[in-house]
Design a protein that fits this description.
The protein has about 300 residues and is an alpha/beta fold. About 45% of the residues lie in helices and about 15% in strands. Strand 4 and strand 5 form a beta hairpin.
Length: about 300
């Protein structure tokens, strides 16, 4: 007999998008209302081009739509979580899964947040670099040393052995040189349009604050882990946590540890690709990992939940 599972849903963030994502759901009955409501986004997901899909003003709504379809597919089969979390943009879909937002509200947030973030970074010369297999104290020292060149800070604590620094190019360049001098060899530049989750994104905070005044935050039906702390967030603190999230470091490594401490047995990644599953695998946590991004992966997940061989 399969032991009782404690399931966590985790949701993808920006950067996981690809042409064709979610399109295998489009003719399913549970998807039709959402596809008919947002046909332009659905078409972009289905046929691209990739260059348009990669624009932040388009990406965020596209990923949220795809994640909602995958979530609806699981819900259609009665799969519900005990806890939810997401990476950056994915935190909003996690909030939807916890009953905080309606479909229209989470899509509105995705449209506007994406547009505001794109507008904020226009004209910026910026860089995001993943630093691998290095000590976070050393990475913070590099950012401190380079601060005379401009704004640079840790933007993502993704998992054990992967931390991202972001900011103005001259400052990030200086931080990278500092790390090289200290013997750090593995660093990878990320293809992004802006220095997300740094102080350079602060102008978006007030716009989100104004938007959130028009949206009803319903009490969460299951716990949500927030990016700001990587821990549980209360209904009272959620709104401020989402506002600060856009310019603060994402604490996904702590989120993984919180899920582990909560005795989660099964993590289902929902949305395009399996980036978050990769982070979890690197964290030496022996947890059952599944994902849903299309009809094939949905069936694999349902089979695994029933204890059937894949």
């Amino acid at each position: 007999m399969t032991p009782m599972r404690k399931i966590a849903f985790v949701f993808a963030g920006q950067g996981a998008q690809y042409v064709g994502m979610g399109s295998s759901f489009y003719n399913e009955p549970f998807a039709l209302d959402l596809i008919n409501k947002y046909p332009t986004v659905a078409e972009l997901c289905q046929v691209g081009p990739q260059s348009e899909l990669d624009k932040t003003s388009n990406t965020q709504a596209a990923i949220v739509l795809t994640s909602l379809l995958a979530l609806k597919a699981l819900q259609h089969h009665g799969v519900i979580p005990a806890i939810t979390a997401g990476l950056s943009l994915g935190e909003y879909t996690a909030c939807f899964a916890a009953g905080i937002f309606s479909e229209d509200e989470v899509m509105e947030i995705a449209f506007k947040r994406g547009r505001w973030m794109e507008e904020t970074v226009q004209g910026m010369d910026c860089r995001m670099t993943a630093v691998l297999q290095s000590d976070n104290e050393l990475i913070q020292s590099a950012c401190n040393e380079a601060s005379s060149k401009g704004i640079v800070s840790i933007s993502n604590f993704n998992c054990q052995g992967q931390t991202v620094i972001s900011g103005e190019r001259s400052a990030v360049d200086q931080a990278v040189e500092f790390l090289k001098e200290k013997g750090v060899r593995r660093m990878i530049d990320l293809q992004v349009s802006g220095p997300f989750h740094t102080a350079l994104m602060a102008p978006v905070e007030n716009k989100l604050k104004i938007l959130f005044e028009t949206i009803t935050f319903n009490p969460m039906s299951v716990p949500v882990l927030c990016n700001l702390s990587g821990n549980y967030v209360s209904d009272n603190d959620l709104k401020q946590a989402l506002i600060k999230q856009v310019s603060s470091a994402v604490q996904f490594a702590k989120t993984i540890e919180t899920l582990r401490s909560a005795s989660v047995t099964t993590v289902i990644e929902i949305g395009p690709k399996t980036v978050l599953s990769g982070f979890i695998k690197k964290s030496a946590w022996d947890v059952e990992l599944m994902h849903v991004e299309d009809m094939d992966s949905l069936q694999e997940t349902l089979n695994a939940l029933k204890g059937e061989s894949l």
